[in-house]
Amino acid sequence: MLPVSWLSFAKREKLTLTERASRRGHSRTSRAHSGNKGATQYLLRPFWLLRVLSSLFIGAVILAVNFTSDWETGLVNVNTTYKSFSNIVMNVDIGLRVGLKGLNITLTGNPINQMNETINYNEKFDWILGKHFDEDYLEALKRGLPNPILYVAEKFTYGSPCAVQSQFRISAYYASTMMWLAFTTWIISNVLFCMPNILYGAYLILVTASCMLLSLVSFSAVREAPMCTIAFGSSILKTTFGGSFYLTLVTGTVCFLIGLMVIFLERTRPKIIGRLFNLDEAEVDDDHEDVYREVINHLEDCSSPTIPLQLML
């Protein structure tokens, strides 16, 4: 056994070496932090501007597409009769715009002023809860709207053999539900991005993207069902996906890429992503905790009687 004085001397020397190594490590870490901070400092303001604008854009799109009427659009130019009990044929553009809350039927004359009348109609028919589509159709009959508008609207009535209304209404209902769920997860993701662990925010933005893409799947599923032909003589009114559909697709893809990018940077470059999200203080606390654990481990090693022999050798 070595004398107690040798053991205490070895412990003091061990602790001194540990402190010196810790200081050198801190100096290297601080220099590295300062270098990385200088390299990323100029990115902070553009990043914050991009972050705010992209978040506002995503939220605005999710809200707006719930109330737009161009998820599916169609337009056809035909020569058709204008009103009942009349043989007068006019050249008009008939448009159909389908949204999540209902549809719009447009009728525009070529030219607009014909037969001492302005032919420029835009009629909305809703199928939201609490308001039946057939009520709007009966109101259009009472108002004496032009024949082309009534003909297209009749295809979407509840008693029509086409059964188009139920297909669109159900698919639009589930699509709207997924969009509102996406709006909820978008709000939560913005809150979580302000927390020390930004991974939860990245996971929620991925959920937001998934909800938006699922809404597209729900709405597009109606196209797989057999559709009734809307024909005006030899001309057929065909519909395709509209601006709101593709805007939702682009926004959902952007959300998906943002979530993957944040997760990738957090796994590979945690310090850089921490500074971009203003998490420097949390990183410093983690560094201090690691140094504290290292010192504790060295002190525990110093309590062993074999350490002084190794130091003497």
Key terms:
disordered C terminus; 7 strands; 10 helices; 313 residues; alpha+beta; elongated; five-stranded antiparallel β-sheet
What does this structure look like?
This protein is an alpha+beta fold and 313 residues long. Helices cover 61% and strands 16% of the residues. The protein contains ten helices and seven strands. It has helices at 4-41, 44-64, 133-143, 147-154, 164-192, 199-220, 243-268, 270-276, 280-302, 306-312, and strands spanning 72-81, 89-98, 102-114, 117-126, 231-232, 235-236, 239-241. A five-stranded antiparallel beta sheet has the order 4-3-2-1-7. The chain has a two-stranded antiparallel ribbon with strand order 5-6. Helix 1 packs antiparallel against helix 9 (280-302) and helix 1 crosses helix 10. It is elongated and about 75 Å long.
How would the blueprint of this fold be written?
Elements: H1 4-41, H2 44-64, E1 72-81, E2 89-98, E3 102-114, E4 117-126, H3 133-143, H4 147-154, H5 164-192, H6 199-220, E5 231-232, E6 235-236, E7 239-241, H7 243-268, H8 270-276, H9 280-302, H10 306-312
Antiparallel strand pairs: 1-2, 1-7, 2-3, 3-4, 5-6
Helix pairs in contact: 1-9, 1-10, 2-5, 5-6, 6-7, 7-8
CA-based gyration radius: 34 Å
Structural class: alpha+beta
Question: How does the overall form come out from the CA principal axes?
Answer: elongated
The count of strands amounts to 7
What is the count of helical runs? 10
Largest beta sheet: strand ordering: 4-3-2-1-7
Low-confidence stretches: 1-7, 9-15, 281-285, 304-313
Question: H/E order of the elements?
Answer: HHEEEEHHHHEEEHHHH
Largest sheet: 5 strands, antiparallel
- Fraction in beta strands: 15-25%
Fraction of residues in helix: 55-70%
Mean pLDDT: 77
Whole-Å distance between the termini? 16 Å
